[in-house]
Amino acid sequence: MLRVDSIKKSFDGFLAVNEANLVVKEGEVIAVIGPNGAGKTTLFNLIAGQLKPDTGRIIFKDEDIAGVPPYEICKKGISRSFQVVNIFSRLTVFENVQVAILSHQKKTFKLFSPTKGQVIQETSDILNNVGLTDKANSISGSLSHGDQKVLEIAIALGNRPELLILDEPTAGMSPEETSFTIDLINRLSAELGLTILFCEHDMELVFSIAHKIMVMQQGRSIIQAKPDQVRDNKEVQEAYLGDLV
Amino acid sequence: MQPYRYTERKVHALFRNIFNLKSSGPIVALFIILLILPPIIPRFYTYIIALMFVTGLLAMSLNMVVGHGGMFQFHHAAFYGVGAYTFALILTKTSLPMWVGFVAGPMVAAFVGLLIGWFCVRLSRLYFGMLQISLGSLIWAIVFRWYSLTGGDDGIHGIPMPSILSSLTSSYYFILIVLTICLGGMYLIFKSPFGTTLQAIRDNPQRCEAVGVNVRRHQLAAIVIATFFAGIAGILFVVLERSVFPDLLFWVLSLEIFIMCLLGGWFTFLGPMLGAAITMALRTFVGIYTEYWTLILGIILILLIFFLPEGVMGLITEKFKGQVTSYMQEQK
Known about the structure:
The structure holds 2 protein chains of 2 kinds. Helix content of chain A is 37%, strand content 24%. Chain A is an alpha/beta fold. Chain A starts with a strand and ends with a helix. By secondary structure, chain B is an all-alpha fold. In chain B, helix 2 (21-40) packs antiparallel against helix 8 (168-191), helix 12 packs across helix 13 (271-289) and helix 13 (271-289) crosses helix 15 (311-331).
C-alpha cells in the first residue's frame, strides 16, 4: 500500500532523514521506533506532505506522492494525527470532527445551508467510537490533554482514511487513558480494517499492538521486521533497546 | 406533493437551526425600534444611526476575514472605497441606469479583492498584512492622483439620487433594509459549512490542510465575499452622503474598523456592529466636548485588551450562556 524508497531530508545541512525505507501492506499495524531525534516525526511529515523530501520516492497505491501538498495527500486516503496537540481550539469537539468530514465529502464551499444540519450521523458515529460523545459540545481548547489527544485521532478519522498515521498517540496520557487508546487502536485495526502507521516511545504498547516494527536511528531505517525479530536483532539492541530487553 | 412538503420541512428546519427564538427576540425588538425611530428623533440622530449602519456593515465584512478567517486584512477600507467610487463614477460619468451602479459597486470591489487576495494568501500572516497595506495604499494613491477621473482630494460631490432616495428618512430605510439583508446573508455564511471551515482555518491552518482543506482557496473565497460586502457598504455610504472622497480608502479608516471589530468582539457574529456603534457614539457625543475623543477611545481599548479580550459582545454572550446553563441545571 505504501512504500517509502530511500528518502532523504535535510534542514540546513542537518540530515534529519537519511535513506529511510518503509513498507506498509494493507491491513497492517506498523510501529516506527527510535531514540529522540531519530527522524520519526520528520518521516511522517514527509509521508503526509507537510514536508517535501530532498530525494527518494514515496509510493502510495502505485502513485508517487512525494512533494504533493498535504490536502491532496489527505484526499488520496492518508490521514494523520499530530504529536503535539493540533486541533481547532475555538470550535466545539463536535465541530472539530465535523470539519474533517465536511472536507472529505467536499462540502466546505457550501454557503447557505447551516452546518448544524450537516454530516451529523457520521460525526456522532466517530465521537461514539472514540468515547467523546458526552463532551461533544465542549469547546475543544478546554478539554484535558488526554481527551485532546483522543480528539486528534477522531479528527484524523473524519476523512475516512485507508492509511492512518498516528504520531505518538499516547504521549502525555495517564495510564488509564493509554490503555483506552491502545484498545481504540486495536479496534480501528480489527473492526474498521484500517492500516495504521504509528510511532511511540512506550515499548510495551509498541510490542503489544504492532504487527511489524521499523527501527530508526539517526535518520536511517535499521530494520523492519516482526516484533520478535526486532527484539533479537543485535544492531537494534546496541542502538536503542539497550537494557530494556 | 412530496417534494413540496419536503422543501417546507427543510425550510422550517433551516429556520429552527439558524434562528433560535431566545436569541432572536431582542434582535427583532431592536429592528422594530429602528424602524419607528426616524420620525421621532431629530434629523441629526437619524443621520448618525444611518452612518453607524454603513460603518457597521463595513466592520462586519472585515470581521469575516479577520475574526472568523484569522487573516491580517489590514487595509479593508480600500475595497469600501472602490465600491463607493465605482458607484459614484457610474452615476456621474456615464449614462448607465442606476441599478448598474448598484451591481457594479460590490462586483468591482470583489474583483479587486480577488486580485489583491490572490497575492496575499500566498504569504504568511504578517507579510499578508504588509502586502495588504501596500496594495491598498496603491489604490488610494491612484484615486488621490487621478484628478481627471476621481477629482483627486476634492472627491466627487452632489451625486444625483433618484427621488425615492432623495430624503434622509428614505435613505435611512433603504440602508436599514439592505443592511438587514446583508446581515442575514452573512449570518447564513457564518453558520454554513464554509463558515465553520473558515473558523477552523483561523484556529489551525496546518491541521486544516491535513484534513484535506485547500486553505488558500478558502481564504481567497472569504476575501472575495468580504470585499463584496465592503463594496455594498461603500454604495450605502454614497446613498447617505452623496459624495465620495479619498479618505474612504485611506488606511486610517482601515485601522478604525479594525478597532471596531476588536472592541465589539472578534469571535462573535454581531460584535463589530456593536463596536461600530460604540465608536461612532463616542466620536459624536464625546467629540462635542473635546476634540481628543480618540484619547478616551484609546483608554477604553487598553482596558479592553486587559479585561475583555473577547470584546464587549464576547462578554454579553458569555453572560447569556452562563444564564442558560444555570437555568438548565436548575431544571435538572
